[in-house]
Write a structure and sequence with these properties.
The chain has 381 residues and is of the alpha/beta class. The protein is built from 15 helices and eight strands. Strands 1-2-3-4-5-6-7-8 form an eight-stranded parallel β-barrel, surrounded by six helices. α6 packs parallel to α7, α8 runs antiparallel to α11 and α12 runs antiparallel to α13. The chain binds NADP nicotinamide-adenine-dinucleotide phosphate.
Amino acid sequence: MKYRNFGKSDFKPSALGFGCMRLPQLPGEDGGIDEPEATRMVRYAIDQGLNYVDTAWSYHGGQSEVVLGRILQDGYREKVALATKMPSWLIEKSEDFDHYFDLQLEKLQTDHIDFYLLHSLRQKSWDNYLKHNLFDWAEKQLADGRIRHLGFSFHDELPVFESILNAYDHWDFCQIQYNYMDVDYQAGQRGLKMAAERGLGVVIMEPLKGGRLAMEVPPEPVKRVFDRAKTPRKPAEWALQWLWNQPEVSLVLSGMSTMEQVEQNVASASRSGVGSLTTEEVGIIEEARDAWEGLAPVACTHCDYCQPCPNGVLIPRIFEIYNNTVMYDLGERGKREYHNEIPEDGRADHCIECGNCEDSCPQHLTIIDYLKDAHEYLREA
Ligand SMILES: NC(=O)c1ccc[n+]([C@@H]2O[C@H](COP(=O)([O-])OP(=O)(O)OC[C@H]3O[C@@H](n4cnc5c(N)ncnc54)[C@H](OP(=O)(O)O)[C@@H]3O)[C@@H](O)[C@H]2O)c1
């Protein structure tokens, strides 16, 4: 295993952390966690030197913390830094902080959390934390040693990220979605550098875009790019090495669901290091990104100039779902996302063809036609 720096802290995290959001599951519709297999996987990784495990109140319907608490018995708790997260969306009053935190300690069978995060911060949840005086509570836990490091995970736009960084001088770390396709998404690369410059440890989530960048055989244009490399690597390893190559990345969390993935990612981590990719190899990953993007049916850049649509159609979000569904061959998953995330009156079939969006689109996209294509592709059969 290789170890890295963690902002201004003395902690030396393993390059790979275990994300416990995608533990192996038993067969069946509502299959719970396959605990014997999850135990084998997490303990194997720890035995190989992994020293950071990440869970949250909500993972696996609340069972991830419980199962992880059991996995970390027999001396494993002492070998790792344990990270979990306050369920931001459940906080209604200041007393809720203690309520959920105490339950988490109980579920995880521990008396402290090494890395505690405010889960999935967005402007709304951040405002809610401030309203309930989060820092009064958090600083007491830090002083009492119940929390060792305080941070947050993030899912909003870069300006919100910056304002959260600036609002508190004592953040120890943050967790952001970042991979070679999501360089300008949410906090993105600019957020990564911003946080690292301020001395925060930066934990990476969704390094394989939830598995989309790990297809054994990627689409032909992407495969052709990777096939040109002198050192052959699987697509998952290309994506992970691209992250480990960057000094601002403290550690990469992977949500591994099979023992084979754990073995592969542990082996990849042992080959990792800042600056270990050649310029040519970094170029290959950039070309792979272009090849993926070339598969997108709509060249929308999410500038939002088309918004607001006079009839409320959520054009950029629709194109994002449409593009991802086609690029990563998501099939039914993409359709579900369209139906679950876009309210009925914001969907593509609500376009009244007024043309306002096309007049304001800097890319001169034929938005009206693309909306028809997107709706046809994403509507449920
Ligand atoms: N705080 C937050 O808001 C938040 C949000 C998201 C994630 N997280 C945390 O961050 C962790 C990492 O995110 P993530 O789980 O989305 O990571 P990820 O690495 O982007 O995706 C994990 C998926 O990638 C696939 N995979 C992993 N290694 C592979 C390999 N070697 N070969 C082929 N496929 C491989 C598996 O897909 P299959 O299962 O389909 O095989 C796995 O489930 C999570 O587990 C969670 O702990 C936090």
